[in-house]
Amino acid sequence: MSMNASRRDLLRAGTQGTAAIAALAWLSGSPVGADPPVNGADARKPWPGFPRQDPKLVAEVVGVSHFNEQRVKELVTSCPELVNAWWDWGFGDWESPLGAASHVGQRGIAEFLLAHGARIDIFAAAMLGYTDVVKALVVAKPGIQRTLGPHGIPLLAHAKAGGTHAADTIAYLESLGDAGTGLEVTQLSAAEQTRYIGTFACGQSGLKLVSRLNDSGQLVVDVETGESRSNNRMIRFVGNDEFFPSGVPSVRLRFVVEEGRATSVAIRGSVPELTLVRIDG
Length: 281
Known about the structure:
The protein is of the alpha+beta class. It has two domains: 7-176, Serine Threonine Protein Phosphatase 5, Tetratricopeptide repeat; 190-278, Lipocalin (Beta Barrel). The chain is 33% helix and 20% strand. α2 packs antiparallel against α3 (55-64) and α9 runs antiparallel to α10. The chain starts with 6 loop residues before the first helix and ends with a strand. The model is unreliable at 1-42 (pLDDT under 50).
């Protein structure tokens, strides 16, 4: 079946940002919402990877752009460069602050980001109801309406997130017939999903993958390398014990199932090719 994003799906996808609050807190080493960094004599010391932007702040600004306008303003005012930062939620599911605000309908956040130099795209234009902009892009590049946004969310879903402000845009995109088409996936029952739940490790590398059901009953994976972690990444079933991470169909996770449960999982695609073996009995 086609993973077309209904309003429920959109909100569920949007909660990937809010559900990431705990992960953002872990990344920053302090509660999300702490005071922004300051300039001058009290400025923070260089972080790992300097002069690239501090990944902790990048993760936070993208995360809070789903729901916390005040914190976005604090971060961007303190560090203007963050307005065009991008964060990889896992496996190559990249998202910017504007991309985050756009798929959950945070108009105020989107307008603030644009006023401070964010680079507008078709997804933000759709959510904001800029119908002429969306039409111009479709005319200039036919088929662009089928391009998917962060987490694999279709363009039409972004427009629907804009509500009444985007009514004309919604009508136009619906008239195209394919602006709401998502990636092809197969739905699994809760009982079917349990065979893939487990903890898997890759030798002595320190890499560990935990597959589990989240609070919404969706299959997700947490990946830990010893240096970093990526939590709560939804995976989508495509058949033959194979999944792709949400928004990243080029990466596949193939489970080996024996006697009703997974004994190993292989990760393939535009990432290091790895095989992890079950370690939780």
